[in-house]
Records
---
Amino acid sequence: MVDLIPHVGAGTLMESVLLADDRAVRVGAIQALDFDRAIVITHDRWKAETGGIPQFSFLLATAREIGTGGGDDDEVLLLRVEGTAPLSLERDLLGVREEALRDALSRHESPSPSVVLDLDIDPFTRNRISFTGLDCRIIGTFYEQTKDGKLVLDFGHDVDNFYATATYRVYKPVGPGLSAIASYIKPGGDEKIENVRIGAVRYSSTRRRAMASGQDDAPVFVNVYDFIGNKTGMFGMTRMGKSNTMKTVVSRVFAVSENRRSQGNSPIGQLIFDPQGEYANPNTQDGTHLAALGERHVIIYKFGAAGDKSNVRPLGFNFFDPAQVDAVKGVISSALVDAAADYVRAFVQADFEGNPIAGETSDEAVKRKAHATRGRLVLYGALSKADFPVPMKEPEGKWPWRAWVTMRKELVDELENQLGTGHVVRAKSGRQVGVERTSLTTVLDWLIERAEANDLGGKAAEGLKSIVEGDAWRSALPIYTQENQGRQVSGYTKLKPLQSFHTPSSRSDYRSEVYGELVAGRVVIVDLHLGPDSVVRKLSESLASYVMQKQTEVFTSGDAPPQIQVVIEEAHNLFSSAKYKDDLDVWVRLAKEASKLKIGMIYATQEVTGVAHQVLANTKNWVVAHLNNTREVNELARFYDFKAFSDSIISHEDKGYVRLKTMSSPFIIPVHIDKYGRALVNEGRAAAGDPPLLEEGEHSAV
C-alpha cells in the first residue's frame, strides 16, 4: 500500500513494539468498521495456526504497510473480540450447506446421521464456508508521539479517522507484543512508575490452545505506585483469589518500601486487618505467608499472644496500666454508649490521665493529677468486680502491681486503724499510697461507706472529702456501685464483654505501638480470627480511628504524613450506603479522607452493591474475580466497560482469573494473577537485604 501522505513519521517504534514478526500474527482483515466497532473476517485455518481466537482476545488493525517506513497511516487500532458477527455471504454459504444436506438425505432410503451430516463437501466450498466474522469493540488507537524530546507510543481512547476497510490488516498480538499491550502505561503523567509483574494474560476459562501454542504466559506488569495512596477494590466470591492478589500487592509494595529506605527516603507502612488469620499464618494454598518476609519486617498482633516471639505481640490493653488508661477509657466508653444516662456522659468527659494543661498553675496540675489517681482507683475496682484479672506485676515487671492513689496521711491512718494493716503500702515520700491488688474492693467499700456515714473527723474527713468530690471519682463511682442518683444502673456488668481486650502483659497502648511500626515502614498484621466478633469490631474501629487521628495531627501541623497502606476484608459491612451517611463512622471517614492523609486502601468484598457508590466512584484500581449473580455484575457494569465482561464474570469460576483495571492502564486486562509464594517472598527479602527463604532441605551457602 502506498502511504497517503508520504514521509510523515517513521513508525519504527510502533512496528518494533506491536507488529514485529515475534509480536503479532496476521489473522484476517476488516470486513466493516465504524468509530466504535469493527467486524473482522478470519478463517478457521488462520485461527488454528495462531492458537485460537477466544472471546476478549486483543487484536490489532492497521492500514500501514509493515516495514515500509510509515506515513499518515502510522497508527494501530486496538480491538477486543466480544462475539461473532455474520458475514455478507454467510447466508448464501449456509444455504449451500443446507442444500447439500437435503440432497444427501434424499439419496438414501434409511440414512443414518453419520451418512448425511458427515457429507464430503468439495474443497472449494469447504474453504468458502470456513470464513467467519468476529464482532470487536474498538478500544482505542496506538500512535507515535514525541514527548520531552523522546519518541513514545501514545494511546487515544477513540478513533480520529478510518479508511476503506480493504486497506486494513488484522493481527493477533502474541508473546512480547501481547505483554506490551497488557502492560501498557500511557506516557506523560507525573506519577512515579515502577513496573512489577502481577500475572499473565488469560482470555478464557479453557486454556488448552493457549498452552499448546505457548501463549499462556504473556506477562502482565502493573505500576506498583497505582496501589500506593489510592483506593483499590477487590471483588469476587470467597476462594476466588482476592487474598492471593492482596498478598501479592502487599509484598510488591514492601519491596518498593525497602528500596526507598535504602535510598534514604521514607518507607511505606502497611496495616492488614486479618479476620481469618490467612495473612499471619501459613496455608496450604501458598506454602508460605506474609510473615515469611522476616520477623524484622512483619509484626503480628493477636489475641492471647504469649510474647515468646519477638514479632508476635498481644492484641489488647492492660486495663490496669495508668499509661494506657486513655485507650481503656475509649473502649469502656464505646461499651457504655448505648446507655443514655448522665453518668455515662460524665464518664466520657472525665480525666483519668491527669496530665498538665497549658496555662494552669502548678497547684492546679497537682490537684488534677491527684483526682485522676482517685478516679482510676474506682475504675480498677469496677474492673475487678467485672472479673478482669488484676496483674501480678507492674508493666515493667519489677514490682508487685498496686493502684497508686493520692491520699492524706490521716485518712490512711484511719483506714489502717479500722481495716488493719496489709491493705495499702505508703510511699517513702509524699501522699502516694499503693492499694494492694487483693484489697481494691475492700479499700473502696470502706471509703464509700465512710463518705456515706460521714463519721470521720478532722483531717481524715478533709482528706476523704477531697477524694469523693473529684470529678473522676464521681464519674466512675456509678460503674462500681451500680447506683446513680438513687436508681439502679447496669454499671460494671457492662464491662464484662470487654475482658477479651484485657492483656495484663501489655506494656503500652497497642495502637501507639502499631502506628510506630507503620511509620517505620513495617507490615503490621492484626490477626482477629480468635477474637469475639463484637470485640474484633470495636478493636478494629479503635485502631483505624487512632491511625487517622495521628495522620491528621501530622497533616494539620503542615508536614506530609507518612505513607500507610490499609488492607480491609468484608468491605460491604463497612462501606454500605446507609453507613456512608454517617460522617462519624470511622470507616466512612477513612474512605473519605484516606487520600488526603496519605493512606492507601485495599478493600475486598463479595458484594459490589454493598459498597456505597461514592466509594466505588473513587476507587482507582479494580480487581474483579468471579461473582455469582446478575445484581452484583449489573452494579459493576456501571463502571468503565466491565459490562462487556458481565456474562464471563458470572460463568467463569476459575481461582485467580480476574479482570484488572489499574489507574495507569487505559483499558481492562483479563489476567490470571500469579500465585503468591516463595519466589515473591524472596524478592521482598532481597530488597530488604535479607537472605532468601530456603526450600525444605536446602542449606545456606554461607
---
Amino acid sequence: MKRLILTAAALLCTQAHAGAQHLIYPLETAVIQDRDDALAYVQSRYPQTGTLALLDTRQSLLGTHYHFAPQNDAGQPCEGAIVVTTDRQGQLYRLFNSLPDDTADCVLNLPLPPRPHTLLSPPAGEIVQATMTVFDPDPRTATGLALEGDHADVDDIVIPASAYQTVTGIEVTRQNGRLYLVNDRVMAVDIQSMAALETGPEQGLVSVADGSSFAFTRQDTAFRDVNAFYHLDHSLQYLAALGFTGVRALFTAPLKIDAQGQNTNNSTYLTDTGILAMGVGGVPDSEDADVVLHEFGHAINYQLVPDWKGGDSDAIGEGFGDYWAGAYSFWVQRDRNERFELDVFANWDGVVGALKSRRSLNDQEARYDPEMDYRAHVSVNGTLSDQLWSTPLFQTLKQAEAVYGEAAFDEFNRVVLEGMAGMGFGMKMHDLARSTVDAAQRLYPQKPYAQWLNARFKHHGILRDALVLAQSNSALTVTGKNQTELSLALIQSGASALNNVQVDLAMPALNWHQVVRSELVAAGAVTRVNESVSIPASLQCGETLSLNAEISFSQDTAQQPVNYQQELTFTYGVPVLSQPLQHSQQAIPDARQINQNGKILLGEALVALNVPAGAGLVSYDFAIQLSLSHPRFSDLKVTVRAPSGRSVTLLNYQSFPLPEKTDTFTMANTAGLSELLGEPMTGNWVLEVTDRVTGQSGKIHSWGVGAVTGYDCSQTGTSTDPQNKQTTDNPAKPENSSSSGGGSLGLFSLLFGVVMALARRRQF
C-alpha cells in the first residue's frame, strides 16, 4: 500500500465559492438546559461576538433551538444570527452562525412594526361542528378536467357539480343563533382598512343560521371565505398530527385570514400583522387550495425561524409554499390510478382566466449558483428561484410515496419541517439542504430519505461535495507494454480550507490501493494526477472498471469530520463505433446579455453528422461519443437529435469540475437513450449545445454515433470484438457513469500541477 502526503505548498488555491457554510457541528460536548447556558456557550466559543439578544426559543421534533441576534453598542439589532441547537436531552448538537465580523457599523435589522389597520372579527362563543361545501383542492384537480373557460371573464366558467365536495365535522363558533368561521385554529376576518395595502371588497362576516350548512358555490362571494377557512383549518390540524403540538406547536392563537383581503391578483402573508390577505384579481385566490396553502407556508416559515430573512430565504419560502401546496394536492389524489397535473402549482388560479401564473414542481434543469442570493420569483442563470427549492423536495416526496405509499406523506413532511428548525438569518439553500438531509437521517435512519434528498440536492447543485475526484476521459488506453495511463484530478471545491484530509482509493481490477493524506487542503485547489499502472493479465479489453474512494475531512479542527464515498467507472480500451467520429473543433458561443433588463440570448452550436444508408437500426449496443471543453459545464445543455426528430439530452446543465470531458454515452449509463431503440441509423444526426450563462465559451472537439463494434486496447490501433470481452457494462448502475459529472475518486502517484480557479460573481 502506498501512502501519499499532500503538502500545503502543492495545493495553491483561490476561493472557489463565495458562500460560507453557516452550519457547524462542534466536536466538543456541552449540556445546555436553558437560554443562559446557550448564551454562555456561544460567548465562550466566540468571545468577539459582543452583545447578543435572545430572539426566541423554539422546540421542534428533535430538540430545542435558541435564536440569538447581534446588537450594536446602542442596543439595536443587527443583521446576522447564531442559533444553538440541542437534542431532546439538552446535549449540544449544532450551531447556525451568520454573525457579522463587526457590529460597530452593522446593518440594522429592526423588526417591522404592525401597520395601522382595522378588522372586523367574528364573535366568541361555543365551538360546534358544521358542514361545508368546498373545492378540494380545486375544480380542475377534483374533476380531472381542463375547465379552461373563457379567458376574458372567469365568472363565466362552467363548474360541474362534481367539482364540489361536502365536508362535515368542521369546527366553527355558535353565537346568538348563528355560526361563524372561527375556532381555536383559524379566524376568518374582514380587513376594513390597512396602511400600504390595496384592500379588497368588504364582505363582512360570513355566517349562517344555526343548524344550516355553509353550502355556497363560487357564484357566492361567501364561498371564498368558506373554502379558505376549511383548507387552512385542515392544514393546521395536520401540523399538530405531525407532532407540532404542545410546546412544539407552531401556532398558539387563531391564524387570521381575509379571503378577499387584496384587490389584486396577489396574495400575501402579512408578517407584521399575522394575517393572510388573499387576492381577488383574475380567479379569486381563495378558490384554489394551492394558493391558500402556499401563503400558509410563509406563516410556517416565520413560526419555525423567527428571523426568516436574508440569504436565499425569499426563494426558499416561495419554494416551500409551492411544495406544501403540491404535497396536499398529491395526498388528495393518492388513491387515484391517474393523477392530475401533480407537478403543477396553482393549476386552477394559475391556468384559467386572462392572468396566468403557475409554476412547476419538476424543473429538472434548475441549477444553483452559491455565489448568488436567490430572491422570490426571479430567474438566475436560467433558473426560477421558486422552482429550484420546490423541485427536489416534491420529487423526493413522489419517490418516497412510490416506495412507502401513504405513510411517506407524514414522514417526509416531518423531514421537511424539521429541516427548517434551527435555521437563522441569512440562510443559503445549501445550509437548509444539509439540515434537511440531516433531519431525514435522524428521524428515519432505517429509510433512504436522506440518501434520496442528498442525490436530488446534488443534481441541482445545491449540495456539492467539498472534495471530489474527477476524470476527463472515461476510457483507459494502453500507453506502453502492459501499461495504462490513469489521469484524474483532485478538486477542493469548498469555500474554505479542509483539515485532516484522508482519501482511501481502491481499484480492485488493477490490484491497486492508495491512501492520500494531508493536514490542510486549501479552498479551490486543483491537483492533476497521472500514473502508469500495470495491466493484469486477467483484464479483458472492454471491461468496465470501478474506482472507489472513501473520503474524510473536517471543515476545521473543532468540527466533527465529514465522511462519504465516491465512485468512478472506466472502460479498459477506447470504444470503437461502427461510424467514424466527426472531428469538428466547433466553437460553443457564449450566451450574451442583449438589453438593459438583463435579457439573455442563448449561445448555440449545431453540428450535423450524416450516417449513410445501410447502417441498420439503433440497438442495445448503440452509443454516442463526445469530446468537448468548457470552463463551466453547468452553463451547458447537450442534446442529440436522431434523423427521426427524436432527441436525447446527454448533459443537462450539470456541474463538472474539469474543463475537458470525453465520454461514451450508452444505453447502460444514459437515461433516455433507450428511447431511440429501433430508430433507423441512416440520415442526419444533429448535436446541439446550448449555453445559457454569460461569461465563458467552449469548443466541441469530436463526436459520433454508432454501434460499439469493439474496443481499442493496443498501441497499434487494433480492436477487440465486444462479444469476446469477459465483463460488459452493468445496466443496473447507470448513475455511476462519468457522464453524470458528479465525480468519484481515482488517485495514484502525485505529479502536482496546480490550476488556479478564480472566484467570480455574476449579477443578473
---
Amino acid sequence: MRVVSLLFLSMAISFSSCKLDVLDTVPRDRFSEDAIWDDPALIETFISSTYRSLPAGFRYSLYNLSVMSDELNARNNSWLYAYWQGNLTADNLGIANSWSGVYAAPNTNQNYWTTINRVNIFFQNIDRERSKPLDEEVKKRMEGENKVIRAKCYFELISQYGGVPIVSKPFNLKDDFKMKRNTYDEVMTFVLKDIDEAIALLPSSYDAANMGRITKDAAMALKSRVLLYRASPLNNTTNDRTKWEAAAKAAKDVIDLGKYALFSDYRTLFLEENRYNSEIIWQRPYNQLVSPEAVYVELSSYPNGYNGFAQIHPLQNLVDDYETIRGVLPENDPLYNDQDPYKDRDPRFYASILHDGMLWKGREVETFLPGGKDSNEGSISPWNASETGYYSRKFVNERINKPSSTNMSQTPWTFFRYAEILLNYAEANYFLGNEALAREYVNLVRNRPSVKMPPIPATVTGPALFDRIVNERRVELVFELHRWYDIRRWKIAPQVMNGDILRMDIRKNTTTGVKQYKKMVWKKAVFTDKDYLLPIPQDEMDKNELFVQNPGYH
C-alpha cells in the first residue's frame, strides 16, 4: 500500500532519503544517522525539515481543496470539471490525491504520510543516549511540536478519507506492510491524545528567533478545530451533546487565554509585513531567498494583464454570497442593482477578490469584452485570462510588479487564526441552543475595524441563524482550506454542490461605454453520497488486500 511506499521511501531505505531533506546543503555522506541523533543542533535541523514537509496552503489549497469546492475555478482543468460532475475515481484522483503527494515545489511531493513518518523517526530516536546532552525543556518542546504535527496530519487524513491506519513507528524492509484501516473514532482518539500531551509539553510563546514554531496555543487551536469537526452532523450522527460541549470548551479555552485579538485590517493581516500579528496563532513562514519553494502567490493569482498566470479564479457562486453593506445577501436587498453588482458589498469582498472596474495597481481591472486588458482579448497573454470574470486577491502582495518565479513575496501561510476560534465557539454554541452567545461571537468577527458589517439581529434565530453562521465562515475564511470540509461536515454539500457553477459575463458597448452584466452557467456540478470522502488511490488498494475502499468507489 502507499502508506508503505510513501512511509518507506524515507523509512525503509535506512534514513538516507530523510538525510537528503534535512541536510540539503551538506553532502549526504558527511553525517551518519547516529551523528544526527547525537547532536542537538542536527536534531533541530531534522525537526525544521519536518515542519517544511507538512503540507501547507499555497500550491496545496489553491490547487486542491479550494478548487474542489464552490470557491475557485482552476483554468483549463479537465480533471476538476470531471470532479465537479461526480466522476472522481480511485484510479484518477488528480490534484485531490493528498494521500500520495501534493505538488509543492520543484521535484518534490508533500504528503501527510511522509510527515507522519518523520515524526515517528523522531520519537524512535529522541530518547537515545547522546554525548551532547539535550536540555530537558528543549526535549519537551521538541516532543510537543512533533505530536502536534502528527495529530494534524492524521486529522487531515481522516477528514478527507475516513479511517486510516494508525502508524506510530517507522517501518523497515522486514516489516509486514499489510494492515487494516483504523476507524474514524480510533484515529480521532489517537489525534486527541497527541494534542493533549503536546499542550502539556509546549511553551505558550517563543522569542523572535523561534517565531513560527508550534506553541501550546497552536495545539489548543488545533484541538478546537478537531473537536468541532468531531461534533458536526457528518461525524456525530446521534447529535451527542457532549461532543458539542467539548468543542465549545476547546474554543473558549483559546479565547480565555486573552492573548489574541482580531487584526484591524482584514486585507493585510495575511501579508508578510504583518506576520505574527495579534490574530495569528500558528503561521508557516517562507523565505524564498534562502529556500525557494515555488510559492508563486502573485504569479498564480495576478490577472494576465498584470503579467500574471491567473491560474485560479473565484466563482460567481462565491461572489453572490458576499452581503451588501446593509447586512443582507444581494438577492434580499432592494437597493442592490444587478447592473452595478459590485457596489456596496462587504469589505471582505474587495479584500479577497478582484472584479471588473476595480481600481488596482494604478488602473481599473478589465475583464469585460470586447478588448478588456484582463480578458481573453487582452494584449498580454490572453490565454492566462480568468474563465469566470474574477481574480483572487486575498494573499497577494501588491508591491510585487511583474511577478515571476524569482519575483515573489514572502507571504506566510496561516494555519490558525483567532477569527476561526471565535466562529468555532459561535457554531458550537448554536448547536447547544445558546443562540444569543452564537450571535455575539459571529458579530465580533463582523465588527472588525476594517469590516464593520451590521450585526446579526436578535430576530434571526433557528435555521436562519445557522445559515448566517455558515455564510460568515464562507466569506471570513475564504480560500483558507475550510470550505471543502465545512460543507461536508454540515452535510449541506448536496445542496451546495448540485447545480450550476457560475461565471460573470460582461459586455461593454464600444460606443456608449455602458457595461452589461450577466451571470452565466460555467459548469454543472453533481454531488452524491460517495463524495463525502475521497477514494483511497487504487495503487494503494492493489498493494494491500486488507484495505476496504470507501463506499461508492468500487
